[in-house]
Structures are given as C-alpha cells and as structure tokens.
Amino acid sequence: MRPRLSDIAKQAGVSEATVSRVLNDRPGVGTATRQAVLTALDVLGYERPALLRKHSAGLVGLVVPELENPIFPLFAQVISTELAAAGYTPVLCTQNPGGVTEDEYVDMLRERHVSGIVFVSGLHADTAADHQRYRDLAESGLPLVFLTGYVDGVAAPCFSCDDTLAATLAVEHLAALGHTRIGLISGPERFIPVQRKISGYTRAMADVGEPLVELTLFGVEGGAAAAGRLYDAGATAILCGSDLMALGAVQEARTRGMSVPKDISIVGYDDSPLIAYTDPPLTTLRQPVRAMATAAVRALLDEVAGQPAPTSEYLFRPELVVRGSTGPHST
C-alpha cells in the first residue's frame, strides 16, 4: 500500500513537506525529526523506501503475556529503553484471555519486517506448548531472544532468573526463623519457572520438614485460595511464586483474623515496583530485571548485526530482600 503523506505527517507530528523530504532522503531535516517520520512509517505498517532502509534500525517486537503483574511492565520499560537507545522502535504486544494470541502477534510482526523479537515469559516457558514455532522462526533467520524460560534446540539465547536458587534461599530464610511447616504456592506445573521453584523448594525442605505444595492460578485470587488450603494444613510460613500471589496470601490471612508476620510469615517473588510499600512491606526474592533485560537486548542486537547466537540459557542470581512480612515462628 502506498504511504499517505497526511497519515504519516499526523502520526509524526510534522508537516507533509517534511515527510516528503524524509521519504526522498533529502537534506534539511534534523535527526530527531527524521527518526520521528521513520517511526511513524513503521507504526502505520508502511514499508520503508529502499533508499531509506540503510538509515534506520527499524522495529523490534516485544511480546509479553500481560501487564497486570507489575513485573512485566518493568521488563517492557527496560527493554524499550535499551532498544530506543540503540535506534530501534519497540512494538509492544500484550496478551489477554480471549484476545490476540502470541502466534497472531508474531505473524503481524513478521508482516512489518521487524528486525527481531523479544519474548518475555511466553509460550516458550510452557512445556505443554509446541516449541516448533520457535525453531521455525529461528531457521527463517529472524533474530530471537527469550526471557524467563528455556527452549531446547532453538538457536537463540535465553535469560532467566535462577528459580531453583530463589526457592532455596526462601526456605533457608524461613527455616532460620524457626519455621518447619513451610508451604509453597505457585502456578500450573507445566511452566518451567514453576517446575524449577518446586525443585529448589523440595530439595531445601528435605532437612526442614514435610513439603506442602499448592498449585493454583497466577494472581491475587489464586494466591488467596491456595493460602487458605495451606493455613488449614497448619503452615506457619509460605513461599509464593509471585508478589501478587503473596498479596493474596496476606489478604486471606487477614480474612481469617491472622497477623502477618506474627501468625504467618509470607515471602513473595519478583520484587515488583511498589511492593516495598505494602502493609506489611513484603519480604521477597528480587529478580534482576534490569540486568536480564539489558543482556537480552544486547544479545538480540548482536544477532541483528550478524553475529552467531548462543543457544544456551543464562541464569541470573536472585536476591532475598527481607522486609516486614517474615518473622520468627511463634510457639
């Protein structure tokens, strides 16, 4: 489809004459204005004229599962900032139940000739999904990187927080406070991060006490429901698979008239923005989001530049952040 100067000018916030000069690669246009026009061209889905392609880095797809969990907007923010600094325009694709699927987003991104795609906690983290989709993408020559989850046999780098270590650190912290009835709440077991948390938790509990595992839906509601079952089972401390699930556990405790951390200690996972300001401030395992996201972008840009892509997974160490939601076991 032939680009309409009026549409591009409106999107970029410039005159049609300026758009014309940029599209014809004529002088007299500032760098920032030129980039604004090229970005507008990309966003509107127009193919750049051949003589301009050498001047622009282009688009990069950023596929995230949803934005309700605060950790995903944080990933998106860091990745977008790093891409923009390198001259690329991120195209954010978020998924909602019943909405556009990951595969549909990928088709759209390929139609727009993106330079590469960053997948954050997508189907690559789901062991029940068909990962051939990623092998086909990689074999087509499209640069890819994955965050949170490993895809075996795909020529693309993966960057994850060490979930096995995270669960181990949490159990060690709670055991040091005197807890032996320590429960784990997490999402469906088919997800790689969940499997790793269960593995780390189970091994750490070997010298502490009986494992108490409740798997549920991600989110506040799932955390509350699973916490209720653990409270009934006599748990005095709980490790949650996300900060949102931990907030659900706190909510359920208060519904039952329990005090956190006097009656129950709760540990989250992620260290999402604002989680330090909850009541009580949440003890949690911090994902090194900035380091992970920056490394992923740099790896993608190396791929775009034609450098060989590693096929291994890079694990980043979590940090235990102790706040007010954990305390000594009361006898």
TrEMBL record:
Q: Which GO terms describe its molecular function?
A: DNA-binding transcription factor activity; transcription cis-regulatory region binding
| InterPro entries in the cross-refs | HTH_LacI, LacI/GalR-like_sensor, Lambda_DNA-bd_dom_sf, Peripla_BP_I
**Coiled-coil portions:** none
Its name, as the record gives it, is: LacI family transcriptional regulator
Q: Name one Pfam family in it.
A: LacI
Top-rank lineage group of the source organism: Bacteria
Q: Which UniProt keywords apply?
A: DNA-binding, Transcription, Transcription regulation
The residues covered by the HTH lacI-type domain are 3-57
